[in-house]
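Supplementary Text 2. Reproducibility record for the structural model of the 297-residue chain.

All settings were left at their defaults, and a single model was retained for analysis rather than an ensemble. We include the record here because the model underlies the residue-level annotations in Supplementary Table 4.
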Amino acid sequence: MPQFNTVGIIAKQGDPEKVVGTLLHLVTYLRSRRLHVRLDAESAHLLGAEVGAAVPVAQLGAGCDLVIVVGGDGTLLHAARMMAAYGVPLVGINLGRLGFLVDVSPQDIESALDPILAGEYQSDRRAMLSVRVIAEDGLERSYSALNDVVIHKWNTARMIELEMDINGVFVSAQRSDGLIIATPTGSTAYALSGGGPLVDPALDALLLVPICPHDLSNRPLVVPGDRRIEVRVRGLDQGHVQVTCDGQADLQLPPRATIEVVRHPHFAHLLHPRGHDHYQILRAKLGWGGHMPPLVT
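Retained model, structure tokens:
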């Protein structure tokens, strides 16, 4: 009996010319393997499926053995947040640019997915973040992220002032453009451009990367993954701060609110083709090059 019987598809939004051809190819391939295919709203719309064919995200999570994401890393980040609570594994078909998370090329659909559907793959569980924004009156709002939670200024040219505690212990105060709290997966995203380190995704860690700090001694900090990070905004900048999760979900921070970030109770479950090599991807995407040529004596 095959390991996967029902496969969901989540498609990138807003780029139909690039997505439709790959979607058609993928759906035809899956049905030729006698698999039941369920489409999210964007996939159903792009394929011109009949009314009612689209499956709500919650039903995709509850009813699918596998979800295939057609798009770039941003689409997979969205899918990972939606699917984490269901434990559904994700495979990414890369229509984007960098593709650190989506590693199957559209032209390799058959050769890459055949082994995966037969149970030959590398399983990769990635830590996520859970963030609570606690207002002064006690009202809470909760979000999740796979890459990062960013506390940043908006609508102002001024720096903002932040205080940070780790497990209830005061660590630092900073004047900066903001703070990136990232997972190891997110170390190749915004945190990298902020001067943060590259961290192997298998490590249990959190990255704390200041954005353009005024004090140049305020450097990125790596802490164990089970730490609780609390951030408060000081001074007159209360109305000029946002919290953004994975570059997609934004919230204007209420005055005198506290941001609490901890490791999410669920993981993003990614499947890669056999032979997947994280460091080869880093070499290719970051332009590190290959082996050095031998010395000529």
